[in-house]
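Severity: low
Component: inverse-folding endpoint
Summary: output formatting inconsistent between runs
Steps to reproduce: submit the following structure tokens with default settings.
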């Protein structure tokens, strides 16, 4: 039987979601907890990977077992796991539903603090400058993203991607008090894509480049044309759709 797990995590203590040699990861902790409680080797498949320091408000993974799973497993897992990981629910799904490949969209949020804030340093980019970012220009740049589907300029170099084609459904900035929130949804994301887009958008907002420059950056299909990647701690995976 195949089961889905819905969970969230604070990524500050982890070298990303996916298991890595000699580094602590969310997947490793989750599989260790499941294997210990169910008393059998359990392997999980996540809805995607998040980089070192990136967080998830809503993440899914699937695993298989012949045991009957009930709601007590959620309680047991939360008791076993560190305070950085929270299990929301576990439910049976059809055998062909895949946590990664069956996903139709993913949504990320990125947070920028416009003031020096010691309470959000692990969950936002501390970007406090005398000259404020121009959110109107940043939202103008968001509209340009919808004109393209090849985002090679925002992709991490030397990966094994078969294609850099993505369909972006939503991209917008909003200011909430002394914080900016960027929301972006797409059918798929390339490694480092959101952080590279945010870093480039901040260059627009700070006046270093114009929205029209963004068009050339995308059309160059060259990572070095875009801005530097925004810090990882401001990025959250917030939804995965099936």
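Observed output (run 2 of 3):
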């Amino acid at each position: 039987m195949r089961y889905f797990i819905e969970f969230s995590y604070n990524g500050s203590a982890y070298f990303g979601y996916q298991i890595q040699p000699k580094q602590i990861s969310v997947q490793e902790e989750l599989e260790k907890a499941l294997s210990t409680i169910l008393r059998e080797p359990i392997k999980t498949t996540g809805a995607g990977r998040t980089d070192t320091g990136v967080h998830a408000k809503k993440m899914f993974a699937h695993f298989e077992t012949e045991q009957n799973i009930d709601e007590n497993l959620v309680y047991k897992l939360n008791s076993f796991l560190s305070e950085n990981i929270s299990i929301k629910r576990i439910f049976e799904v059809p055998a062909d539903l895949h946590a990664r490949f069956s996903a139709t969209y993913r949504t990320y949020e990125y947070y920028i603090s416009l003031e020096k804030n010691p309470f959000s340093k692990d969950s936002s980019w501390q970007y406090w400058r005398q000259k404020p970012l121009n959110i109107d220009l940043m939202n103008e740049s968001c509209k340009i993203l919808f004109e393209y589907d090849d985002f090679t300029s925002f992709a991490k170099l030397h990966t094994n991607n078969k294609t850099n084609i993505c369909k972006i459904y939503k991209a917008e900035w909003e200011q909430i008090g002394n914080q900016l929130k960027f929301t972006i949804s797409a059918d798929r994301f390339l490694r480092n894509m959101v952080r590279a887009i945010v870093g480039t958008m901040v260059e627009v907002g700070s006046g270093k480049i114009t929205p029209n420059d963004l068009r050339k950056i995308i059309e160059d299909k060259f990572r070095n044309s875009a801005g530097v990647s925004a810090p990882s701690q401001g990025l959250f995976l917030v939804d995965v759709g099936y």
